[in-house]
Write a structure and sequence with these properties.
The chain is 31% helix and 20% strand. It has helices at 6-12, 22-41, 45-72, 76-93, 109-121, 202-210, and strands at residues 128-140, 160-161, 164-165, 168-182, 197-199, 219-228, 258-267, 297-301, 306-308. The strands form 4 sheets. It has a 3-stranded antiparallel β-sheet with strand order 6-7-8, with no helix packed on it. The chain has a two-stranded antiparallel ribbon with strand order 1-4. Strands 2-3 form a two-stranded antiparallel sheet. The structure holds zinc ion (2 copies).
């Protein structure tokens, strides 16, 4: 890390870094850009690249904080967008430096990356639209030269040149071939929502309500929750088992002492609202088993993060 960038990193490690204060953050970005220009003028590629790294780290931290703020405001779609970009930019950023290095320690980059993925996994979005198209004109973001089977510039995709990342820019699309519906699109921005489905964001709202802030020591663990058969008296033995196995009740959990349902356990440092279970699939069930609850943790049932009306 170029020593001229150390003050920015040091500031970033403090609690009062202005993730929300626009004017202050603008000044920081301006200073980094000016520094980058000096490196570029000297053709100091490493210095310019370090500027890009610091800029990207700050931007991604802002994205993560913005996502958290949107979640606290129950603006789930807005939060989702921020998280999608946050995940993507970690993908672009991390190959360019060793974030376990001392310079970058205490920035919690690995933790934020992990938390981004965890938060995304709690959203009820499973399927995404992914368009496939015939490209008429593709150019390199660094040199602006056209890329096609007969012409290729020397810039490597996602490498950093003069402190900027190299992308391919689609300048013209000839036609859209098809629209795929997939679990793993390149961009998870356009999610699929069937008309008769209501998305359920309960897990997220509970997590947010119980956490003091975005970096509170919250943790989400996939778990099983055992519910007594009392809760499922309205299920016939030859019904599908309430555990969601798609076996019949009598051939599945009825043989056991309890019905074991997939659940997330949410642990937080917060002492707030830590005294109930919430069932998502079986909304008619309100389980209050105080003895099962440890301090600061609870179990949320979530066999299917969205449910049909
Ligand atoms: Zn190029
Ligand atoms: Zn079962």
């Amino acid at each position: 890390m170029n020593e001229e960038l150390i003050p920015f990193i040091t500031k970033l490690k403090t609690k009062d870094f202005p993730f929300e204060d626009n004017e202050e953050i603008k000044t920081i970005f301006k200073e980094i850009r000016e520094l980058k220009q000096i490196f570029v003028n000297k053709d100091d590629q490493n210095g310019a690249k370090d500027c890009w790294i610091v800029e990207t780290i700050i931007n991604n931290r802002i994205r993560y904080e913005n996502a958290w703020i949107s979640l606290t405001q129950r603006k789930y779609e807005k939060a989702w967008r921020e998280l999608v970009f946050c995940e993507k930019w970690f993908e672009y950023l991390l190959p360019h430096f060793n974030y376990m290095d001392e310079d970058y320690s205490d920035l919690f980059l690995d933790e934020i990356e992990e938390r981004t993925k965890t938060l995304m996994s709690l959203f009820p979005y499973y399927l995404f639209f992914s368009p496939s198209y015939v490209i008429k004109k593709l150019v390199c973001s660094i040199c602006n030269e056209e890329i096609n089977p007969f012409n290729r510039c020397d810039h490597k995709l996602r490498e950093i040149y003069n402190g900027e990342i190299c992308f391919r820019i689609i300048e013209e699309i000839k036609e859209i071939n098809h629209l795929a519906l997939t679990r793993f699109p390149r961009w998870k921005l356009r999610y699929f929502k069937p008309d008769n489905v209501n998305f359920n964001y309960d897990i997220l709202s509970i997590l947010i309500d119980r956490s003091e802030n975005s970096m509170d020591g919250w943790n989400v663990i996939a778990d099983k929750l055992g519910l007594s058969h009392e809760n499922f008296k309205h299920f016939q033995p030859d019904h599908y088992c309430p555990c969601g196995s798609f076996k019949s009740y009598k051939e599945c959990c009825m043989k056991n002492d309890s019905v074991y349902i997939n659940a997330y356990r949410i642990d937080t440092n917060s002492k707030r609202n830590n005294n109930h279970f919430i069932s998502m699939r079986f909304r008619q069930i309100k389980v209050e088993e105080e003895e099962k609850i440890q301090h600061g943790s609870s179990v949320i049932v979530d066999p299917e993060a969205f449910y049909f009306d």
